[in-house]
Design a protein that fits this description.
Elements: E1 8-10, H1 18-43, H2 49-64, E2 68-70, H3 73-110, H4 116-170
Antiparallel strand pairs: 1-2
Helix pairs in contact: 1-2, 1-3, 3-4
């Protein structure tokens, strides 16, 4: 008797904080919905019902299985790619904010003799930028942690599939 891989696991088993689990669930839904949307747009009128149905099933499982991580390789790949894009977007925003911080710092030092009110406004802007950077770095760390867990599960699922395929070919 061959043991079947579970189609999903409780997020509580991943060692995530409550906010990380919430982020994972939200982004799992977003990734699968984006995949379903992109797939339906690219295959419209081409008769790819089987692939579209599996994409729809994965998206449905993710949205109905609140608190669960879908484990099929396709869903994990989509989720991993989604987190890669998300991390790139966060990194880009951090770089933008860093550039703004540098600009603010240069502007501030060149106006040393300017009115005190102008200096106070730039300091407040600088503090807000730093606060935003801190928030983004925290989110980046959470997403990185989730991505690493997803990659680990993806590798494990791929390994299990290879072993199951090897067992199946021996029979």
């Amino acid at each position: 008797m061959t043991s079947a891989l579970p189609s999903s696991i409780p997020v509580s088993q991943l060692g995530l904080s409550a906010s990380e689990a919430q982020i994972l669930h939200q982004h799992q839904q977003i990734a699968l919905q984006n995949q379903a949307y992109a797939h339906s747009a690219s295959t419209r009128g081409r008769g790819h019902a089987r692939t579209s149905a599996s994409t729809s099933r994965a998206a449905s499982a993710a949205s109905s299985g609140h608190g669960r991580l879908v484990l099929d390789p396709g869903s994990l790949a989509v989720l991993g790619q989604h987190f890669e894009r998300l991390m790139a977007a966060i990194q880009n925003r951090v770089e933008q904010l860093t550039a703004q911080t540098q600009t603010s710092t240069i502007n501030q030092s060149s106006r040393a003799g300017a009115a005190m009110a102008a200096a106070d406004a730039e300091i407040a802007r600088f503090r807000e930028i730093i606060r935003q950077i801190d928030e983004l770095e925290t989110e980046f760390d959470k997403v990185r942690h989730i991505r690493d867990i997803v990659k680990g599960f993806r590798a494990r699922v791929d390994g299990l599939e290879r072993r199951m395929d090897a067992r199946g070919s021996r029979r």
